[in-house]
Amino acid sequence: MPDRKLTVLGDSCAEGRGGLTRPDGTFLGFVVRLADSLGIADGVLNLGSFGATTQDAVDRQLPVALANPAPLMGVIVGGNDLVTDYDRARFQRNLRHLYTGLVAPGRLVFTTNWPGIPDRLPGLDEHTRSALRERFAEANEFLEKLVYELDLVCLDLANAPLATDPVMWCADGMHPSPAGHQAIGIAMADLIDEARTVRL
Length: 200
Hints:
alpha/beta; Rossmann fold; 5-stranded parallel beta sheet; two-stranded antiparallel ribbon; 8 helices; globular
């Protein structure tokens, strides 16, 4: 097994769903774009999977990630909890468990917050949409505390220009489009390079 340079835990956004599909059926998502931008195409382990929740990441992905340590590790998960399977205490407990489990000396852990998915989801009545907005805002507030506490690198998708650009998102409202995956990968690579410079 090659030395790991990048390990990513997560859901279908981490998996790359919405990005271009390769001949082997895998997705050309932001993790691939990120690795290419950082020059680490080899030694990448992407555990992202469709439908994964924070509980799935804790139970199934974290043990694999810890068995395949890398100097750069990412977590992109939580959207499925927030939209379909939300329990605040469990959600916050799982996030804390994931990030504290990955943080280690000499390792950079990155993530993103959640963009305005409730505003893009089709077919919602206004009451449901408003409730989801509050839920996402609460999740971002909690993640911000973890970022500060654990010194995580966080791409601020909630306030990024691409968050409101319809070209960057699929029609389902959840997944980045090919252009969105590319933009997120490049932006994350820039943020990681900046963080590495500061921490040297």
